[in-house]
Amino acid sequence: MAKIGLVAHDDKKDELCVWAARHKRKLSEHQLWGTGTTGSRIIEATGLPVGLLKSGPLGGDQQLGAMIAEGRLDVLIFFIDPLSAQPHDVDVKALTRLATLYDVMCANNEATANAVLAYL
Question: Which positions, given as ranges, span the membrane (predicted)?
Answer without folding.
Answer: none
